[in-house]
Each structure stands twice: as structure tokens, then as C-alpha cells.
Design goal:
By secondary structure, the chain is an alpha/beta fold. It has six helices and four strands, in the order αβαβαβαβαα.
Length: about 150
Amino acid sequence: YTLDAPETGDLMEQIGDRLLVIMHGGDEIAPQECVDPTPQRLAAFMARHPYLRLSSAHLGGYMFWDDVEEHLVGRSVYFDLSYTFGKAPEDQIRRIITGHGYERIFFASDFPWQGQSEALAGLESLCLPPDQEAAILGANFEHAMARPQRL
């Protein structure tokens, strides 16, 4: 499906705020000629569906992290850390987490593309305060799943 497809909009209307919608963000490992879930398009999608509880994988947009900072940081969306460590600059990962709010970040590894131990080592290398790291490792996801609410 594409973000602009009427069927996608219909599905999002049916989901409402009852479920956490997790979707890919950004390019693919093998770069695509046309990328649908760019940060700009995700921002527009969110504007059309403001009631959604949405998580965008790969820190909001694999290989589009500058655009994530411009269009998604601070908005009502969760990001996961899948396949970001060793791909995005560590200082940019830290900047996105800080700017967006650690409470809206989920741990993920995107196995088999990146193993959990590699992703965990990447998270630990950020030297976040222990409470923030613990939240990213599980509490944030539990909170997001516990009750529908806007961020």
C-alpha cells in the first residue's frame, strides 16, 4: 500500500487510536527509486490521521535522518531504533532522541539485518542516563501499548 492510497486512509480510519500502527520509515537496504515513507510524506500522513498511534521504524526514516530532524522530530509519533546503529551517525541518533524525547523511542534491532547484541551495544554507546535507557528498552513500548492517547 502507499500512504496516499484511499484504502490506506480507510484502514487507518478503522484502526483509529485502538492499536499502535508500526510502519517502515525511509529507504530500503537496497535503495529504491521511489521511496513512499519519507519523513515528509509521513508528516503529511500524520496530519491526515492525527488520532493514530504511529511508530515509524528506523528512527523515523532509514537514510533520511536529516529529513527526520526537519519534519518528524517533536511530532506525535514514536520511532524505533531498528537498523540505525552503524548506519546513522551516532551524534545524529543522540540528537534525534534528545530532540524528539526519549519517551517516544523504542528499542528494536531489525533482525536478521542487525542482531540484537549489535543494536544493544549501539544503544549503550550513547551513554544515556540509566532511566532513559531502561525506558527505551521496554517501558516506552509498554506505555504506548497500555492506553490509547496522543503523545
